[in-house]
Amino acid sequence: MSKYKLIILRHGEGAWNKENRFCSWVDQKLNSDGLEEAWNCGRQLKALNFEFDLVFTSVLNRSIHTAWLILKEQVPVESSWRLNERHYGALIGLNWEKMALNHGEEQVRVWRRSYNMTPPPTEESHPYYHEIYSDCRYKVCDMALDQLPRSESLKEVLERLLPYWNERIAPEVLKGKTVMLSAHGNSSRALLKHLEGISDEDIINITLPTGVLILLELDKKLRAVGPHQFLGDQKAIRETIKKVDGQVKVKQGKK
Amino acid sequence: MSKYKLIILRHGEGAWNKENRFCSWVDQKLNSDGLEEARNCGRQLKALNFEFDLVFTSVLNRSIHTAWLILEELGQEWVPLESSWRLNERHYGALIGLNREKMALNHGEEQVKVWRRSYNVTPPPIDESHPYYHEIYNDRRYKVCDVALDQLPRSESLKEVLERLLPYWNERIAPEVLKGKTVLISAHGNSSRALLKHLEGISDEDIVNITLPTGVPILLELDENLHAVGPHQFLGDQEAIRAAIKKVEDQGKVKDSKK
């Protein structure tokens, strides 16, 4: 029986979404569509009379700006690297279409959607390595800089996310606080997998639309009482899911 | 000898600044000038290579938005931010929303100056009949304070601002500064003045003459006991800062043509 409600949100578009490039730990800004998606979310929440006590975000600015746009300013926001998007290693910044042309649609789909496939790690020669690891936000984590991921499977995302859920977020939910997580595609999927008990095989087929509020109802032990629900216009949501799925497919004309 | 650096700032303009009305606890937004002032602050602090560990704001949205804009300019949106009513602007009681020029015409420039700038004169309290009473006290943010709703101020002198601010400085902010954290306080004209009075040891008489410009980062260097080692400094173009101070001071004066 549902005792707690949790809202999770995958932030909206940044410039690289349109270019089909893995953004991951690069600190891209939301583009105008992404900003609009956030505002829409905010309006929806207001219409639903949600009042949050606490918001958790990653340390990537797009998740924080999404939260700032949605919420009343006085709601405390806490940011942690443990909610960051999945670290795509050496694939960061690469274009999906080009990768699919070179490696095949199936390999790209495996890299994007498998549970335990870790891409090759990012290295100092990677164009975005220093931009990421020189940033002071990664010097003040609860993990030393050299211990932070250089690449992750979805499984590894959950492994670094779960302690944060257990130690920081879950206790607040159990206190009856209304909590929102403003996160990313894969960090949201990892958490839903855990809370809903989704199998390693089934998680591959779960797509989360951007800028759509995801409601998860939890029992007193913080297990999902049913599948996650998308709040809002269901037809528009189906279109958004299709759009996210479509980013992987190679356009027919290029085969 | 300077051991710690603290940055305090007074947020920029909201709509009522231009109308010379006491905004106080009414949750006005920054206007476009105020937004630009915040971004300028951020750019200045970026040029000076500031890396903040912690930001403190009031619960009024204009102080929070100012902090957000500054953090955005710095690329430091992830820095923890904490908000407390104890950093709120001074509560102007029954004077909230009233136009300063009109008050000066009715009561004289001197009385207005006393209300605005004295240390221990408390304006008449706000009551339920005041047009902004319910907008303020029905808001959920005042139900989750460390003080019960009915115990929150209904009017304050600058002295009373310091009395409710000091526990927060002592218990939440000072320990972080002593740990060597680089702290930004995004606050208001009077809550900033109250804190500076305390840290710099400014007398009750002298504080009357201290004016803080909006949207200018204020640097205070502190010794190991968190006492100021010198007067606060305004960071930035000094001529522009003098003009900004004059603008704030002029808001209290009645225009000659109306006398």
TrEMBL record, chain A:
Pfam families with a match to the protein in the record: His_Phos_1 (PF00300)
EC number, as in UniProt: 5.4.2.11, 5.4.2.4
Domain of life: Eukaryota
Record-marked site positions (Transition state stabilizer): H184
Catalytic activity: (2R)-2-phosphoglycerate = (2R)-3-phosphoglycerate; (2R)-3-phospho-glyceroyl phosphate = (2R)-2,3-bisphosphoglycerate + H(+)
Active site: H11 (tele-phosphohistidine intermediate), E85 (proton donor/acceptor)
SMART domains, A to Z: PGAM (SM00855)
GO molecular function: bisphosphoglycerate mutase activity; phosphoglycerate mutase activity
BP GO annotations: glycolytic process
Family matches, as Gene3D superfamilies: Phosphoglycerate mutase-like (3.40.50.1240)
Keywords of this entry: Glycolysis, Isomerase
Residues binding substrate: 10-17, 62, 85-88, 112-113, 185-186
HAMAP family: PGAM_GpmA
Function text: Plays a major role in regulating hemoglobin oxygen affinity by controlling the levels of its allosteric effector 2,3-bisphosphoglycerate (2,3-BPG). Also exhibits mutase (EC 5.4.2.11) activity.
Family the UniProt entry places it in: Belongs to the phosphoglycerate mutase family. BPG-dependent PGAM subfamily.
Protein name, as recorded: Phosphoglycerate mutase
Organism from which the protein derives: Jaculus jaculus
Gene field: LOC101617678
UniProtKB/TrEMBL annotation, chain B:
Active site: H11 (tele-phosphohistidine intermediate), E89 (proton donor/acceptor)
Molecular functions per Gene Ontology: bisphosphoglycerate mutase activity; phosphoglycerate mutase activity
Site features described as Transition state stabilizer, chain residue numbers: H188
Signal peptide: none
InterPro entries: His_Pase_superF_clade-1, His_PPase_superfam, PG/BPGM_mutase_AS, Phosphogly_mut1
Catalysed reaction, written as an equation: (2R)-2-phosphoglycerate = (2R)-3-phosphoglycerate; (2R)-3-phospho-glyceroyl phosphate = (2R)-2,3-bisphosphoglycerate + H(+)
GO-annotated biological processes: glycolytic process
UniProt-annotated binding residues for substrate: 10-17, 62, 89-92, 116-117, 189-190
Enzyme class of the recorded protein, top EC level: isomerase
Keywords tagged on the record: Glycolysis, Isomerase
EC number: 5.4.2.11, 5.4.2.4
Keyword Isomerase: yes
Family assignment from sequence similarity: Belongs to the phosphoglycerate mutase family. BPG-dependent PGAM subfamily.
PANTHER family: PHOSPHOGLYCERATE MUTASE
Function: Plays a major role in regulating hemoglobin oxygen affinity by controlling the levels of its allosteric effector 2,3-bisphosphoglycerate (2,3-BPG). Also exhibits mutase (EC 5.4.2.11) activity.
Name by which UniProt lists this protein: Phosphoglycerate mutase
Species whose genome carries this gene: Jaculus jaculus (Lesser Egyptian jerboa)
